Amino acid sequence: MSSGTASAAAAPLLETRNLGVRFGGLQALEGVDLAVQAGEIFGLLGPNGAGKTTLFNLISGVTPAGSGAVLWRGGAIHGLDPNRIARLGIARTFQNLRLFQSLSCRDNVLVGLHRQARLPWPDALLGTPRARRHHHHLQEQAQGLLELLEIGPLGDQPAAGLSYGDRRRLEIARALANAPQLLLLDEPAAGMNPTEKEELRHLIRRLRDRFDLTVLIIEHHVPLMLGLCDRLAVLNFGRRIALGTPDAVRNDPAVIEAYLGGQA
Question: Cα–Cα distance between 32 and 241 in angstroms, integer?
Answer without folding.
Answer: 10
